[in-house]
Design a protein that fits this description.
Oligomer: single chain
Strand content: 5-15%
Order of helices and strands: HHEEHEHEEHHEEHHHHHH
CATH topology of the largest domain: Glutaredoxin
Number of strands: 7
CATH architecture of the largest domain: 3-Layer(aba) Sandwich
Helix content: 40-55%
Distance between the termini: 58 Å
Shape: globular
Number of domains: 2
């Protein structure tokens, strides 16, 4: 705390102890005001088999969110072959009725549409504004499952790529069809904006493509705040390629890779030299982009 600021407000003849007390009081007021502003009282609590949600949206919308979280839970635990949690150890959600309410409780980071801050997944639902109002929740809930159920300790590319893999998957009637891309999810709706040429070398030179070597080492050759969507497209498409391409040719190797300390060395040891993998992944990305432009679902 900068005492010079308070010298304006505190008399010069005030004793040292009184000045300390006044400083502490001012700090308390500032932080107390912040916590008052961000405090949020939920309307009610609703539970499902594996989740407990504090919610201020309608009961129907909360039930829908819990249903999608449960669908993710069943698909995720089956995919990774991990044991389900107990009824006494439910995963926690907070569901808000508007972005304004969500941002009041979660002022940072400013761009977030949902966020996982252990132990809660925070999500707002405005059904009239979104085709897939819960897909942000699925993304953050996948992070929650990585951390609290699988207890993975992943590099960023794999952490975000896995969350994107699940959150971009088509979900209908309580079932997730892994490998089927839902065009109305992030970052899928940004794929066409890349304007890929079909020439890997050219697109790397034009900074539309980042080398796998940089991605798997979690390097940021381009500024993250200026190329946010580009990084998410890379993370999503690389994980989708490793899990789905060529009838899952690299799936087991990828699963082994993410369960061990990971970087380029582990990637190449388990999956293969990045110079070999990179053009295959690039073609995979081109195929997804082309398929979506034809209004097709990309299925393996």
């Amino acid at each position: 705390m900068n005492n010079r600021l308070f010298n304006i407000l505190i008399p010069a003849n005030c004793s040292y102890k009184k000045r300390i007390l006044i400083d502490l009081l001012l700090v308390s007021v500032v932080f107390g005001g912040y916590f008052w502003y961000t405090h949020r009282t939920s309307a009610y609590k609703l539970e499902s088999e594996h989740y407990s949600a504090l919610s201020s949206v309608s009961i129907e919308e909360t039930k829908d969110a819990l249903s999608k979280a449960e669908t993710l839970y069943q698909t995720y635990t089956a995919f990774w072959d991990v044991k389900a949690g107990t009824a006494d150890n439910k995963l926690l959600l907070k569901i808000y009725s508007s972005r304004k309410e969500f941002k009041r409780a979660n002022p940072l980071p400013g761009w977030a549409e949902a966020i996982y801050r252990a132990p809660y997944c925070h999500q707002y639902i405005e059904t009239e504004n979104e085709n897939r109002p819960c897909h942000w929740l699925v993304h953050e809930a996948a992070h929650q499952l990585n951390n609290e159920v699988s207890q993975f300790r992943l590099p960023q590319w794999a952490e975000e790529g896995i969350a994107c893999y699940f959150s971009t998957t088509r979900m209908d009637d309580g079932k997730m069809s892994l490998g089927v891309v839902d065009r109305d999810t992030y970052p899928i709706w940004w794929l066409s904006s890349l304007g890929l040429s079909g020439d890997l070398s050219r697109d790397k030179a034009d900074k539309k493509i980042i080398s796998i070597k940089s991605i798997v080492n979690d390097e940021k050759p381009l500024k993250m705040d200026q190329h946010f969507n580009l990084y998410y497209i890379h993370w999503f498409s690389l994980v989708h390629f490793l899990l789905e391409a060529e009838q899952g040719k690299y799936r087991e190797a990828f699963i082994t890779c993410v369960k061990t300390p990971s970087g380029l060395e582990a990637f190449e040891e388990n999956i293969g030299p990045y110079q070999l993998i990179e053009p295959q992944w690039y073609q995979h990305l081109l195929q997804i982009t082309e398929s979506l432009s034809k209004n097709d679902l990309y299925v393996y």
